[in-house]
């Protein structure tokens, strides 16, 4: 997909997300009406982005604090075309993405994240800008030969993952016979 097409998808997704936020904003009386995120962005001309370092897709140089990568470039170009300033508000953790958006710490999570059930239930998302493959690694001294991914769904194998990660959820659903470590 060309950069322009990706940018158009992001811009349209942002408009839909902001429109959805306005439409589904909890009703309140005129005396207690709270400014929506969309209205604040229009008023201030700024989008406060949350980000997670994920080299090379979003990277912060430790010496210069310069932000680079495709997600940085996409958001900066979107800001230019929309006439708004992108504020790189704060680094957010993988586990706090939806909460950071929901509680107003940031307006958007701007560095590309995997969608899972918890995230989809709580935030609007754009179309994918990149695809990230998953790999299965085996010890160097393991001489077994695996001919397909299905070979890893075996009670003779012990699989390792970070608890609560997206990979652990995939492992639990795809490799139910394997042991966990």
Q: How does this model look, in words?
A:
- The protein is built from six helices and seven strands.
- The chain has two domains: about 5-120, 3-Layer(aba) Sandwich (D-Maltodextrin-Binding Protein, domain 2), CATH 3.40.190.10; about 135-180, no CATH class.
- The two termini are about 40 Å apart.
- Strand 6, helix 6 (about 165-175) and strand 7 (about 180) form a beta-alpha-beta unit.
- It has a three-stranded parallel sheet with strand order 4-1-5. A two-stranded antiparallel sheet has the order 2-3.
- Helix 1 (about 5-25) packs across helix 3 (about 70-80).
- With about 180 residues, the protein is an alpha/beta fold.
- The model is unreliable at about 25-30 (pLDDT under 50).
In short:
By secondary structure, the protein is of the alpha/beta class. It has six helices and seven strands. It has two domains: about 5-120, Periplasmic binding protein-like II (D-Maltodextrin-Binding Protein, domain 2), CATH 3.40.190.10; about 135-180, no CATH class.
Q: What's the helix-strand series? A: HHEEEHEHEHEHE
Instruction: Write down the domain tally.
Output: 2
User: Biggest β-sheet, characterized?
Assistant: 3 strands, parallel
Q: Low-confidence stretches at least 5 residues in length (pLDDT < 50)?
A: 27-31
Share in β-strands: 5-15%
Quote the distance from N terminus to C terminus: 40 Å
Mean pLDDT: 82
Under CATH at level 1, the class of the largest domain stands as Alpha Beta
Give the CATH architecture of the largest domain.
3-Layer(aba) Sandwich
Rg calculated over all Cα atoms:
20 Å
């Amino acid at each position: 997909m060309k950069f322009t097409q990706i940018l158009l998808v992001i811009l349209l997704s942002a408009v839909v997300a902001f429109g959805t936020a306005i439409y589904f904003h909890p009703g309140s009386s005129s005396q207690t009406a709270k400014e929506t995120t969309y209205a604040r962005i229009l008023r201030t001309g700024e989008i406060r982005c949350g980000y997670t370092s994920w080299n090379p897709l979003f990277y912060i140089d430790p010496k210069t604090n310069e932000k680079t990568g495709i997600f940085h470039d996409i958001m900066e170009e979107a800001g230019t075309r929309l006439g708004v300033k992108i504020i790189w508000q704060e680094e957010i953790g993988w586990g706090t993405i939806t909460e950071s958006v929901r509680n107003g710490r940031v307006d958007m999570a701007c560095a590309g994240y995997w969608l899972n059930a918890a995230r989809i239930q709580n935030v609007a998302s754009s179309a994918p800008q990149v695809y990230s493959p998953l790999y299965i690694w085996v010890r160097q001294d393991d001489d077994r030969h695996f001919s397909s991914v299905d070979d890893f769904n075996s009670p003779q194998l012990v699989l390792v993952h970070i608890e609560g990660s997206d990979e652990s959820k995939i492992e639990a659903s795809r490799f139910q016979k394997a042991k966990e470590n």
